[in-house]
Specification:
This protein has about 80 residues and is of the alpha+beta class. It has one domain (about 1-75). It has one helix and five strands. Strands 1, 2, 3, 4 and 5 form a five-stranded antiparallel sheet that branches. The radius of gyration is 13 Å and the shape is globular.
Length: about 80
């Protein structure tokens, strides 16, 4: 679902993303095809327990770009 096209490779859209938090800050994010896929990835990642790392699934708007043929999140839009 696209909201606004800024350029062909840079747009705002609704995404599902697996977020990795380290000491309360987002350190990594990975776009997922669905919430179910995100939750599966979260369960897999949490099998390696670390007190300072947590994972969350996010559904919301994000500014994305296509880089080297792969879609990446440039910024999350929190509302």
């Amino acid at each position: 679902m696209h909201y606004k096209t800024e350029t062909e490779d840079n747009l705002i859209e609704v995404v599902f993303a697996l977020l990795m938090f380290y000491n309360g800050e987002i350190k990594e994010h990975l776009i997922q095809p669905s919430m179910a896929a995100c939750l599966r990835g979260k369960r897999t990642a949490e099998r390696q327990y670390s007190e300072s790392i947590s994972y969350k699934c996010y559904k919301g708007k994000a500014k994305t770009e296509i880089y080297q043929g792969r879609k990446n999140i440039r910024a999350l839009i929190l509302e």
